[in-house]
Glycosyl-4,4'-diaponeurosporenoate acyltransferase (Nocardioides marmotae), 184 residues
Amino acid sequence: MSRPPVSARVVLVASSTTALAAGGMAAAWVFLGRSGFPFALVTHLLLMAWVSSIVGPQVRMSDLDWFRVRHGEPRLYSALGVRLFGKLLDAIGWNRVIARERGFSGTREGLEELDQDTRRSEVGHGICLVVTAAVALGMLSTGAWHGAVWLVALGLLVHLYPALLQRLLRARVQTILARLSRTP
């Protein structure tokens, strides 16, 4: 029996993990309540697991203008503390885990794949931010403002800052790739 095409397998994995994530969030709502840190933490862990099944290494991000880091962005991100956030991730060892996972080879092709990795990560964290906002609005509509605040606060830490960190890394990668393309 032949294997289904990659696109069919991706759709199957994405739809099944979507159902699991939604079920997990519902279970967290019931068993942990909807008003505190535990619910927010479990929700974000489920979101990250779900998104990694959708925006995995098999997904190629097109060269949209959105992914081009503008000249002033790195300075803005530094002012917002994104570099400090990166240093915190270095200190706790998270960046070593991600570096092993990415397996950057140090070659030009490796730089292009690193660029793709930063795009996928940024998109994944962006999707998580959108879902976080939707869930928080739903929580506010039920009067669970305390839980919505925890959800949004944790979302800023585990999704917004990592997405901005990806853009900061991509700015360096784009600068190097631009220099290499000018070299004969």
The longest helix spans residues 145-182. The chain has a mean pLDDT of 81. Residues 6-182 form one domain. The radius of gyration is 18 Å.
